[in-house]
Amino acid sequence: MTNGDVHALSGAYVLDALTDIERATFRRHLVSCATCAIEVAELQETAARLADGAWSVPPPALRDRVFAEVSRTRQDAPTPAKPVRPQRNRRLFSVAAAVVLAAVAATGTFAVQERRLDQQRTTAQAESARVTEVLSAPDAILRSAGSTSGVRLTVVTSAARGEAVLTMTAERPAGADRTYQLWMLDGTTPTSAAVLPPGTTSATRLITGTAAADTFAATIEPEGGSATPTLPIVGQVSVA
Amino acid sequence: MREQSHGDPPRDHLTAVPAPVDDRSEADRLLVAVGRGDEGAFRQLYELVAARVYGLARQVLRDPAQAEEVAQEVLVEVWRTAARFEPSKGSATAWVFTIAHRRAVDRVRSEQAATDRVQKAGSWSAQTPYDEVSGEVEERLERQQVRRCLDDLTSLQRESITLAYYGGRSYREVATLLNVSLPTIKTRMRDGLIRLRDCLGVEVPS
């Protein structure tokens, strides 16, 4: 995509009319383009004025439910958590690593649950050891992102090892005859990272060859997986 | 909405007119207070924005029950993330309605994914024609500045923006619906919004 093409996406971007991949590409572009960021802020403000044309009185019960949920919902910190870099903050990283290890444990020790055959156990244990190595790598970085589709992806990458540990937790199964498939994206080029067994709502995978990956993503695919992702992406985490 | 054309008074018309245009600085003040954990401010902010959050979700999703779910998610997200609102980067109302639109569109897209894509591809173009979307919106925009400014756009600009914003369409769908090339649609969305921005006198402090 040339710069000209990217610039032209600002209108479709603020109207939420892009695909997830285009949206991610455009957001990356915004980081390095100050004039685009100003234009987008102005167009975002403009688009939001269109909401004046869509008002509709909500059912009174909505107010009660929102206030009830608010009263038991803890507020987030002022700025979104930045990727934790161990070089700069070891203590925070150990917390992050603990979170991932807990997630790994909670998602049911892939070594045992998903590799039932004895003969595979040795392989699984070796893989488990590599998971631990990635998590404790000196250059490991943890990133995590949830989606409105109820899919959270947490990934720890080690650039030096070219490996990552990817954990997916979904609020619900992928559906009848469907399954979750995990991908790594290099720009807009997807590579399948794992096809999860049908019915799985949480899983952890060691992923190799991640040097070029800038995004990890999950999609819902027919059982057995697909060669290319079926849109939309139901969860993604950027590692660029 | 469609069912109301058979004699029942349209409910949407029995209610107060939307909050006046100068609600924006009030919303800014309230959202900053919400960011500090002020539940009273949240309740006031709710009264200012809930009708538009719910209405937008309903306009995009077409299904009142789903719209209610999405509106609840959005309003709770506003509470949860309010501390991230920076008045220097835009208005509180834009911040809230940006979240609302995004969440409504996310829901549309995941619904589309959940249904048979092939079947859907054949039938979606017939679901909400432009005239239907724009007709409902026009009624609500009566007497408002946004309406006058939308009227100033070329028809292709106006249709592109309306289908994407109120119809929750991707620009590819809009291109198909209007039988126009993808680059043209992208360009019309952008230059249409720029014209709208200038007409509304939108400014972002920086």
TrEMBL record, chain A:
Lipid bilayer topology: Single-pass membrane protein
Segments passing through the bilayer: 92-112
GO MF: sigma factor antagonist activity
This protein's record includes keyword Transferase: no
InterPro entries: Anti-sigma-K/W_factor (IPR051474), Anti_sigma_zinc_sf (IPR041916), RskA_C (IPR018764), Znf_put (IPR027383)
Annotated GO biological process: regulation of translation
Localization in the cell: Cell membrane; Membrane
RNA-binding found in the keyword field: no
GO cellular component, one term: plasma membrane
Domain of life: Bacteria
One Pfam family in the UniProt entry: RskA_C
Keywords: Cell membrane, Membrane, Transcription, Transcription regulation, Transmembrane, Transmembrane helix
Domain Anti-sigma K factor RskA C-terminal: 93-232
PANTHER family in the cross-refs: ANTI-SIGMA-K FACTOR RSKA
Protein name: Regulator of SigK
UniProtKB/TrEMBL annotation, chain B:
Alphabetized NCBIfam families for the sequence: PRK09646.1, sigma70-ECF
Any one GO MF annotation of this record: DNA binding
Similarity remark: Belongs to the sigma-70 factor family. ECF subfamily.
SUPFAM superfamilies registered for this protein in UniProt: Sigma2 domain of RNA polymerase sigma factors (SSF88946), Sigma3 and sigma4 domains of RNA polymerase sigma factors (SSF88659)
Keywords: Sigma factor, Transcription, Transcription regulation
UniProt domain RNA polymerase sigma factor 70 region 4 type: residue ranges: 143-196
Protein name from the UniProt record: RNA polymerase sigma-70 factor, ECF subfamily
Database matches in InterPro entries: RNA_pol_sigma-70-like (IPR039425), RNA_pol_sigma-70_dom (IPR014284), RNA_pol_sigma70_r2 (IPR007627), RNA_pol_sigma70_r4_t2 (IPR013249), RNA_pol_sigma_r2 (IPR013325), RNA_pol_sigma_r3/r4-like (IPR013324), WH-like_DNA-bd_sf (IPR036388)
Organism: Asanoa hainanensis
Basic and acidic residues: bias regions: 1-14
Keyword Cytoplasm: no
Domain RNA polymerase sigma-70 region: 45-112
Pfam family, one: Sigma70_r2
Gene Ontology BP term (one): DNA-templated transcription initiation
